[in-house]
Write a structure and sequence with these properties.
- This protein has 482 residues and is α+β, with helices and mostly antiparallel strands.
- It folds into two domains: 99 residues, Beta Barrel (OB fold (Dihydrolipoamide Acetyltransferase, E2P)), CATH 2.40.50.140; 332 residues, Bira Bifunctional Protein, Domain 2 (BirA Bifunctional Protein, domain 2).
- Helix content is 27%, strand content 23%.
- The protein is built from twelve helices and 16 strands.
- The strands form four sheets. It has a seven-stranded mixed β-sheet with strand order 8-9-16-15-12-11-10. The protein has a five-stranded mixed beta barrel with strand order 1-2-3-5-4.
- Strand 2 and strand 3 form a beta hairpin.
- It is elongated and about 85 Å long.
- The structure holds 4-amino-1,4-dioxobutan-2-aminium adenosine-5'-monophosphate (4AD) and magnesium ion.
- This is asparagine--tRNA ligase.
- It is an enzyme of class 6 (ligase).
- Its EC number is 6.1.1.22.
Length: 482
């Protein structure tokens, strides 16, 4: 039924048919001769325009003021060609039934409200165009990611309310799990490694939790991660898989979510369709961490955090690399110093670096007075550190989308003795990793994998600027209300 309003010409082939729609009133315009009710049932972005004359059954409910924004209704009518310019067809109502009233204090009336405000109404914001679009888009994208049950990412796992009211909830901090400490997982990787080292290529997708107190537009305390793990693979295979995977997902949403993409392009980030098309078509830049440091040192730019080999890259450095040095191209940085990376990453032959990779994506940016360059001129060329700096400067850009690191991965340390050494050096408790070490004791293979943060992917592909708006119920430090 709701297909009727799918596209500019859709629905015309249903002219004359009788349809039933169950949904929520978005707007209501009562005129002397006719009433217009826009209804949305969540199945697509556009509303169904219903036209009601005073002789239709149930009109008394309109007359008495019962039908208000937010109310749920059942309507039956005939599809007719619309007089209006916004839609080809509309529903000429024969019958209207009120299902659930909406209190007049319903906070989402037909006016622009801030996303900050909507975050405080997270239980209602799916009823807005933006969140309807972002959330449905999530589901479609999930199916392209390879998840069979697409409605799986709505319920948060951390919550402030007791669903059964029986007081049987685990505390989220250090859990006392039947006498042993347990934690909420930060990544499914180690488990995926056990499967990869038995079944070859696998992936896991699930909620992950970080107890870091990061209040930024790209950090959540609870987020979903897609984690492929490839057996018999090295870092080059890993980077190739990550790039192809991102391109595959982006290509599919461009092809199959046209209505949503047009919406994002108009309302959220102008030019996002071009930006994503570029991502699909171009190769990504690859650069070692060491070359990136030289690039930053040679830039003559005064960074707030000074650069030196061994330092963790800050977002200002990442921005310089993706947006200034490479004109808006995704960049994969590899071979990081082992001191700033996790224990499981494979040590390179130089003894100082590990086979790690981070894919950094440019935030969307625009220049004041000029157009963004749309092509990645430097792709495929060997980076010449002595070459003239590109004619762009961060000061002239205004930034919207705050994604930065979209993917993090590595080749795993498959050599038992190296891994044990590393655990010892980091003073990590070897006993608690006994099963992980066993993978190296029994049939160890070179393997590699990565993690793609789903909400950062949604941010990247919708242009939504705060990660809190890329997930139905954001969990951030101090916020677990809904
Ligand atoms: O770089 P991270 O921490 O890597 C891992 O967890 C690996 N074990 C993954 C693997 O190799 N299987 O996280 C991977 C990705 C990041 O690149 C980012 O997209 C996302 O997960 N991410 C977050 N997203 C939202 N909020 C946070 N606090 C995030 N931390 C990481
Ligand atoms: Mg990382």
């Amino acid at each position: 039924i709701v297909d009727v309003k799918g596209g500019p010409d859709e629905g015309l082939d249903r002219l004359g048919q009788t349809l039933v729609v169950k949904g929520w009133v978005r707007t209501l315009r009562v005129q002397s001769s006719v009433t217009f009710i826009e209804v949305n049932d969540g199945s697509c972005l556009s509303n169904m325009q219903c036209v009601m004359n005073s002789d239709a059954e149930g009109y008394d409910q309109v007359e008495s003021g019962l039908i208000t924004t937010g109310a749920s209704i059942w309507v039956q009518g005939i599809v007719v060609a619309s007089q209006g310019s916004k839609q080809k067809v509309e529903l000429k109502l024969e019958k209207l039934l009120m299902i659930g009233r909406s209190d007049p204090s319903f906070p989402i009336q037909k006016k622009r409200v801030s996303r900050e405000f909507l975050r405080t109404k997270a239980h209602l914001r799916p009823r807005t165009n933006t969140f309807g679009a972002v959330d449905c888009f999530d589901m479609v994208m999930l199916s392209y990611i390879g998840v069979d049950v697409v409605a799986s990412n709505i319920s948060p796992i951390i919550t402030g309310s007791d669903c059964e009211g029986a007081g049987e909830q685990f505390c989220v901090t250090t859990l006392d799990f039947f006498g042993k400490p347990a934690f909420l997982t930060v990544s499914g990787q180690l488990n995926a490694e056990t499967y990869a080292t038995a079944l070859s290529d696998v992936y896991t997708f699930g909620p992950t939790f970080r107890a870091e107190n990061s209040n930024t537009s790209r950090h959540l305390a609870e987020f979903w991660m897609i984690e492929p793990e490839l057996a018999f693979s090295d870092l080059n295979d890993d980077m190739a898989c990550a790039s192809a995977y991102l391109q595959y997902v982006v290509k599919h949403v461009l092809e199959h979510c046209k209505e949503d993409m047009d919406f994002f392009n108009t309302w959220i980030e102008k030019g996002i369709i071009n930006r994503l098309s570029d991502v699909v078509e171009k190769n990504f830049v690859q650069l070692t961490y060491t070359d990136a440091i030289e690039l930053l040192l040679g830039s003559n730019k005064k960074f707030e955090f000074p650069v030196k080999w061994g330092c963790d890259l800050q977002s200002e450095h990442e921005r310089y690399i993706t947006e200034v040095a490479f004109g808006g191209c995704p960049v994969i940085l590899r071979d990081y110093p082992k001191e700033i990376k996790a224990f499981y990453m494979r040590q390179n032959d130089d003894g100082k670096t590990v086979a790690a990779m981070d894919m950094l994506v440019p935030r969307n940016f625009k220049y004041s007075g000029e157009l963004c360059p749309s092509s990645f001129g430097v792709i495929g060329m060997k980076l010449k550190l002595s070459s003239n700096p590109p004619p762009l400067s961060l000061e002239r850009c205004s930034f919207f989308c705050q994604v930065g690191e979209l993917i993090g991965g590595s080749q795993r340390e498959e050599r038992l003795e190296y891994l044990e050494d590393r655990l010892d050096n980091l003073k990590l408790n070897k006993e608690s990793y006994w099963w992980y070490l066993d993978l190296r004791r029994y049939g160890s293979v070179p393997h590699a994998g990565f993690g793609l943060g789903f909400e950062r992917l949604v941010q990247f592909a919708t242009g939504i600027d705060n990660i809190r708006d890329a997930i139905p119920f954001p969990r951030t430090p101090g916020s677990a209300e809904f």
